[in-house]
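Limitations
The structure tokens in this dataset are predictions for the assembled complex, not deposited experimental models. Users should treat interface geometry with appropriate caution, especially where small molecules or nucleic acid strands are included. An illustrative entry is reproduced here so readers can see what is and is not provided.
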Amino acid sequence: MREGPDIARIASLVGDPARANMLSALMGGTALTASELALEAGVSLPTASSHLSKLMEGGLLTLASQGRHRYYGLAGPQVAGMIEAITGVAAAVGPQRVRPGPRDAAMRVARVCYDHLAGEQAVAMLDRLVARQVLLRDDEEIQLGPSADSHFAAIGIDVHTKARRPVCRACLDWSVRRSHLAGTLGAAILDKILAEKWARREKDSRAVIFSPIGKQAFEKTFLA
Amino acid sequence: MREGPDIARIASLVGDPARANMLSALMGGTALTASELALEAGVSLPTASSHLSKLMEGGLLTLASQGRHRYYGLAGPQVAGMIEAITGVAAAVGPQRVRPGPRDAAMRVARVCYDHLAGEQAVAMLDRLVARQVLLRDDEEIQLGPSADSHFAAIGIDVHTKARRPVCRACLDWSVRRSHLAGTLGAAILDKILAEKWARREKDSRAVIFSPIGKQAFEKTFLA
DNA sequence: AGGATGCTTCGATGAGGAACGAACTATGCG
DNA sequence: CGCATAGTTCGTTCCTCATCGAAGCATCCT
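Predicted assembly:
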């Protein structure tokens, strides 16, 4: 028997779906707060906090406290490399994607991804914004176009924020295999969708359900 | 949220101690049978079989049937690379080696490693056999020396076997970080130790407990 | 054929741990 | 100071899954 490094301990940390989602989210490289990670993983805040403690104790995460915010990040490139390796095996082995169920269909259409919209609707929206040159996209880099300012101001969204986070970011949408819009702009758009009651979040799910009228309004505003 | 490859599924496969031990054992590159892996993992045969099914279903293993033997091996270099990556993180993070407990102390002294002896006693034995040139060692390669035949015959061990397995093999002992003797010779020596009742296996453990008299006999025979 | 060995399946048991709500602590804002 | 927001801790519930013994297949040996 092997008395080596405790590989089962590390692997089992990654082996929980909630923790795996958190780690995947952190693979983006930017540190996130507990509540952001809770959303990402689809669990409650207490549950997320418990998972984060375990990941910290396991040495997979680092913690940077800034005031009342606590930013969790991957502990280092070695950890990131491990996640990559596991993801690679999962992808190679995983063309057994069984994902039916009524709620999952809704999730593919539209869902919350951290603080912005994901799914087919979100991918279509980004496509359209780029096609109209409201946004300028160069691979994964997304910039505001010249008309962005007025375009979004007309909808009631101020693109000038002084937050740490970038205004625009591409976020890979795994259900569609294409990118959708993240960043503060993505978040603002989701806020508007919910504030206008064009759609509602389904309880205990990340699915976002558009009402018939809301869907029209959304398409008129963003897919025109 | 991420709808990507199911990394939690793969990681949780590795996250069970029994399965992790099996995978570590297979990192040697040679395929092993279910019963060998059961010993390696320290579980019963049914339990091992169940784990192997899961690893197969997860795509981490390949299976080669040869008659009534079924040899399990790692599915490929990508899987091996993943195990390496996890092991690396575990080793980097793991200088929290807390391993007290009465039974664990006994395990460090002597324990069963698959079918041969491991632990401090086993490492000392290999050292001594090499020093006396009964065995000739070149790094991880171990050959029988000229006097090996008569030396082991005197103890009642026939070193001439026609098994597939090599007679001598070096096996890295993680508790001591040095090698001990595996292979059919290592197995024969463990058999003799137990047959002569120099030591007994502790129930539900891989620990091997020498009796005071047995210890003397062992040391006279192999450490003289 | 009959027995031995290698391995899997079945069924029952038990323990670990994931989940959440409620309550508690800490930081920031007015 | 008091209220709101961000996080953690506690206690409970529940379910998955690891484990083993017994029994069932499959293969080899004689």
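Some entries come with short summary sentences. For this one: The longest strand of chain B covers residues 61-66.
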